[in-house]
Amino acid sequence: xxxxxxxxxxxxxxxxxxxxxxxxxxxxxxxxxxxxxxxxxxxxxxxxxxxxxxxxxxxxxxxxxxxxxxxxxxxxxxxxxxxxxxxxxxxxxxxxxxxxxxxxxxxxxxxxxxxxxxxxxxxxxxxxxxxxxxxxxxxxxxxxxxxxxxxxxxxxxxxxxxxxxxxxxxxxxxxxxxxxxxxxxxxxxxxxxxxxxxxxxxxxxxxxxxxxxxxxxxxxxxxxxxxxxxxxxxxxxxxxxxxxxxxxxxxxxxxxxxxxxxxxxxxxxxxxxxxxxxxxxxxxxxxxxxxxxxxxxxxxxxxxxxxxxxxxxxxxxxxxxxxxxxxxxxxxx
Length: 333
What we know:
It is built from three helices and 28 strands. It is mainly beta. The protein has an eight-stranded mixed beta sheet, with no helix packed on it. The longest helix is centred in the first third of the chain and has 17 residues, at 2-18. The radius of gyration is 20 Å and the shape is globular.
């Protein structure tokens, strides 16, 4: 009965999208090129509890789960920490539930979800330039700044949404709410990762437990759905939730440029991720039309990654949270 529910879920999912736009079905052999990346662990002073990070110009900025030095700024020339700031609290320079905002601006932006406050810092001297209240009523997971507003994903007890919020108009618009899944199943089915293309005003969302990602415009019109075939189906529990231990984690990270989508493909169960037995995972590059471009093979499971675009060939920084020196550089020889 459990597998019948799973097949029904994916059948309904595919049919829902194909009514709007054709679904691309690909497998791993459809990538024109797969490159085995070399790796180099970057020695740093002991670091712990990195939850998120971004690369901005010559800097790498981490958000850490701790009561002090919530944010640490590293110079990428030598990976020395040049600045640390932020403590837990409600006073000046304090944060309760902060997030790094993905922005095309040459600034560091931090949004505190509990205090509903946006802080903007200069990258040149890391000083606070401005603070303003953003009355976003949700608790965003990933936040992107747009030309006149913000795009984010959030979840509620019975729904998950991708939302566009305009501070000038003080208006909120749900771009996408996964009705084909959340009306029938627990919101854990829609767990995933959000990306945004500011030039073309496109979003991409990759599911963690389904081998599928979608591309849509910011009006919520579905443009493309891409499914990796020949993959195991998720295990659904009796209450409709994902069995995270035995289900395969497919996508576990996402970064974008204006020309490409980079998805981190894992392909291991939650049980094997905990055991740290993953020896082969991939960063997959796609066009914004959903077509496969290239696969970058890496030698382990990483908890997060970002792009390094300041060289002739692209490279990546990954995070290994189980090591005191968590940064790993992946690059083509």
